[in-house]
Amino acid sequence: MKDAIEPSKIVNLNQRPESPERLGALVHSVRDTASRRLQVLLGNMFEHVDDALFDLAEKAENNAAQMHYFDGMREVRKRRPVVERAYLAQFSRELTEFAANRRSASTDSSPPSLGNIELSLVGENELEESLAITSLISKNASRITRDLFALNQRLSVICGGIKVDDTNNPVGPAVLTQTFRQAMRELSADMRVKLIIYKLFDRYVLSGLEELYQELNAELMRAGVLPQLRHGITRSGASQPAGSGTRAAAGGANALGTGGDVSAEDAGNLLDTLHALFTARRAGHDLSGLGASVSGSRALPTANELLGALSVLQSQMASQGSGSPGTAGGLGIGTVAGSGAVDFDIAHEVAALKEHLLNQIGSLRGERPHHVSSIDEDTIDLVGMLFEFILEDRNLPPQMQVLLARLQIPYLKAAILDRRLFAHRQHPARRLLDSLADVAKGWSDESDKDRRLHDKVKAIVEQLLHEFDDDMGIFDRLLADLQEFQELTRKRAELAEQRVAESTRGREKLEQARRRAAREILERIDGRPIPPLVHGVLARAWANYLVLILLRQGEDSPEFADGLRFVNEFIASTRLGSDAESRATLRQMLPGIERALRRGLANVAFQDNDVERLLDQLHAFYRQQLGEADPAATTTSEQGPPAIPESIQSIVDTVQETAPLAAGTTDEPLEILAPEVQAQMEAVGAMKPGTWIEFCPAGSAAERAKLSWISPMSGRYLFVNRRGLKVGDFAPQELAASLAAGSARILASNAFFDRAMDAIVGRLSQPASDASEPG
């Protein structure tokens, strides 16, 4: 419904030129009258906030929710004067600046673009608030059309000819509501409390605008501003008031026993908002493909007729089974292309669905309707966009996208039965879809070789297709079934995940102990040469002993201090002089060295005969040091380095391989990262356990894995699949490099339905040339 001026009936368009002083006085008069009435209306609203919040607190489902309402009551009492002053001051500024032509006026004659609605997608709270504001504006703008139109024309005259319309009128519901939103920023209350206050603002402030406009129009008429203004109302046969479809739909839902008055109001508010968005997107063209031959003589399909037609299509789809590439009547579910993407034209399929619905209704009633009501068309398109998002969401594997896409008709039935589906996060149908998407996110062929998860999702889809009629309780039952399955799977996966983490932690501790032992020995050797025999003992047998102490007793233990003391004495024994005093010192040291060596080698499982062979070699070496070697015997230096017994080798090889003793430092060189890798390091640093990643190595199948554990020692990231089995562990820079190269990508962690609604609102609020949507 649009208002159009009948030029021939407009008289006295301020025929005599008026002085700026008189026009300014009229603007001030409008401001004073509006401020006085708004102050009364706002005060009356705040008088009811306490009672409303107290009633909600008494009915709260738990203590936490109750405290939110009580906290909100205290915050409102404390900040009410600030909010009222901020609101009235901002309103006064808006009107003054607008009249002074400092504020840009709207020049677009097309339907509102909803730019003033500030549909921010920053966060869930902001989205909820934006939807509430949009709904209030849409609802009240259509209610007070006649008086608001007259006020727009008269304000245009006294503001110097600026074009004034519903979107920029400083006394209109759009600007007044946005002004109140700004004033509400003075209130640090929970979003649930703010949404209640917005409802009260609608009830006690916006509902009083009609009387305000009548008073302002009468005042301006008395002042001679367009005293004989007339306007007619033109009706389009193809359109109807936005609210009528909502009321009819809500009535249909209540007739089926799916909700009370409050729930219908909440759902209606959200659908009013989306209706405004869809209307703005459809402005200027008929996107339904069904509106060209509208006939007012044929009644629009009722909710029951739509549900009956959908049930027929649902039955046909269920009978085809999941193996078919299409669904009933040509409504496709998509197929997985060779690239892994799903081949699916949702816009074509939604248009086809509308056509099939009208044909089916025609066969049931004997007369085919030309189109559905605007609110039902919005619902069909909204569900279509929801399932388009499923097929575009790369967080879901293609095989799961195809499975979930088969739920389009059951979810369209659910949306018609219960409008709360899109308004409430705790709606069972919404929670079921969120849970299905969540379990599907971690699915891959490799992690589901027994097909347990795939078959569970498929069974839920099939059960909805075969059994869902009008009993919304089926969503609760299937959600409980899925949660039970998830709990069993989670317990098994947690056990496997714990074993993987413990094994990885143990290996890292061993690696750290090896590096520490090697570093301690290297520091004491200090790059100076030592005899090969002593070097071999320290690098292999004694290094292994130090590793064992570090793992069992720790670096602060007396045993570790004794082990390092032996290293000092053992090395010192090779660097004494050949004079008599040095030989005496060496003789005093040898018994302690031998005792320590026997004890240490026994702890690392040396056999007695191996210990004796090694000690014999050391005795020969020290006799040579003391000048007591048998002249007939071949010297150690001539024989070369004495061999470590083979039975010892298996114990100590790993120490030599991972921490070889050599002159120089063990510090690793600093790695210079490429800019694109450096850019991904922040994303890697922000990852928390529980984050899912898809690894897509070239030439291999994609694998989805969850971040299970970040090592506090090495900083490496351990990933497991949904069964708790290890997929890999990576240093942060390795992971960043994979993200930069596109061989890995982080999957979204927020709920599927929230992502979908953000994307849908974002798409609908774009200019029509920048986005497309079904229907």
Automatic annotation (TrEMBL):
The keyword Coiled coil applies. InterPro entries: DUF1631 (IPR012434). Residues 493-520 form a coiled coil. Pfam families: DUF1631 (PF07793). Keywords: Coiled coil. This is DUF1631 domain-containing protein. It comes from Dyella ginsengisoli.
